[in-house]
Amino acid sequence: MDFWIKDISLANEGLGRIEWASKFMPTLELVGREIAERGLLRGLRISACLHVTKETANLIRILRNAGAEVYLAASNPLSTQDNVAAALVKFFDVHVYAKRGETESEYYSMLRRVAEVGPDILIDDGGDLIALVHEEYEDICKKIIGGSEETTTGVIREKALEKSGRLKFPIIATNDAIVKRIVDNRFGTGQSVVDGLIRATNILIAGKTVVVAGYGYVGRGIAQRMRGMGAKVIVTEVDPIKALEAHYDGFTIMPMEDAAELGDVFITATGNINIIREEHMKKMKSGAILCNAGHFNVEIDLKALNNLTTKREKINYCVEKFYLKNGRHVYLLGEGRLVNLACAEGHPSEVMNISFSLQALVAEYLVENKNKLENKVYVVPRYLEEKVALLTLKSFGYNIDTMTEEQKEYLQKWK
Fold first, then answer.
1. In whole angstroms, what is the distance from residue 171 CA to residue 275 CA?
2. 39 Ramachandran zone, left/alpha/beta (phi>0; psi -120 to 50)
3. pLDDT value at position 1?
4. CA-based diameter of the chain, in Å?
5. Cα(37)–Cα(31) distance, rounded to whole angstroms?
6. Phi, psi for residue 122 in degrees, rounded to 5
7. What pLDDT is recorded for position 403?
């Protein structure tokens, strides 16, 4: 079987990690049984560009159990768990093309491997795979039933494709599901960014001034968790409505130009480019820590940082010290990539339980609606979100109220 991984001998260790994660993913297990019974994915070829983690492995496992042939590439050079990649190859017959620390050319080469197999469905995290097939494989696009997108950055790119009139197949923006944004983006990233920061540095959060750039669902989660651990949190924003919300949530609001002089830790969470720039870095106090929670390593201007630097020093696997020309120094975590995956293990399994349950149901939904959807970016149907939410609540032992017929009728009246 074709694959490209670090070391197949790591498979047993990886299997243990996959099994551990599965214990915290009960909704995905229930969804997996359902889609296997319905059999709509049987014989289909699914190409995925995702973080190769123990949680992702459980999504891939249930897709394989449903009869799909799966090809998996990494969506970030530093997020692959090599033992999980080995286990997917050895125990689940998945074509995996991922190694932690792969070069940029290797990264895109592996994306081409999963594109060239002629997939029926794409599952993407960041939009690189979907963008690649549009740029280089127009003939393959004709066969693709549709795709789904896991993260905000990817949805932005795919909506730009649609707006330009170049989108070749329908996309379901799984990221934009309300349940996903609340649980994954807010609670998942909020906790996992704290985890990545502490694993990399072991600093005390209490008493630090933490600057969070962006107050979307991700930024909210980070800001709230940092405050919960005793940090003084400053929020920077370009959106006046989000900035107003941050104010009423109790955070200090200011431009990055002013925050640059005050922060001990800077965390970008915007999905945009060059949020922390040269003029900001020049103002930072010596010892400031820079990290990114957005999908791509573009939010901290790394070119500017290198231009300001006289010497670089590696502190540990995830921390690099930059000596600046002004005599100060700053620290960069995870090469400016996703700090929660580059420096830690990403979201807790309970979080991905919900996100990946949606992804599995969306794959089936695309097959059910083959040739019925236009080449547009769609939201996840509400009933699929509610299904995942209800199954998850039931796994916690909760039941909720249902409306009476009288209540349903009342909500239909205009008088």
1. 28
2. left
3. 77
4. 73
5. 10
6. -115, 140
7. 96
The 309-316 sheet, strands edge to edge:
252-253, 232-236, 209-213, 265-268, 288-292, 329-333, 319-324, 309-316
Sign of the C-alpha dihedral, residues 408, 409, 412, 415?
negative
Task: Give the C-alpha separation, 88 to 79, whole Å.
Answer: 16
Distance of alpha carbon 215 from the chain centroid = 17
- Residue 235 phi, psi (nearest 5): -115, 135
Alpha carbon 145 to chain centroid, angstroms: 23
Determine the Cα–Cα distance for residues 387 and 382; give it in Å rounded to an integer.
9
**pTM > 0.70: yes or no:** yes
Using DSSP bridges, classify how beta strands 232-236 and 209-213 pair: parallel, antiparallel or unpaired.
Answer: parallel
Query: In 3-state terms, what secondary structure has residue 78?
Result: coil
Q: Rounded CA gap, 176 and 179, in Å?
A: 9
Beta bridge partners of 149: 124
The series of mean pLDDT values per 10 residues for the chain, 415 residues long, is: 95 98 98 97 98 98 98 96 98 98 96 97 97 95 96 95 97 96 95 98 98 97 98 98 98 98 98 97 98 96 98 97 98 97 96 97 98 97 97 96 96 93
CA dist., res. 203 & res. 226, Å (int):
12
Compute the distance between CA of residue 17 and CA of residue 378 in angstroms, rounded to an integer: 34
- Distance from the Cα of residue 198 to its chain's centroid: 20
**224 alpha-carbon distance from chain centroid:** 19
The alpha carbons of the chain give a radius of gyration, in whole angstroms, of 22
State the pLDDT at residue 11. 98
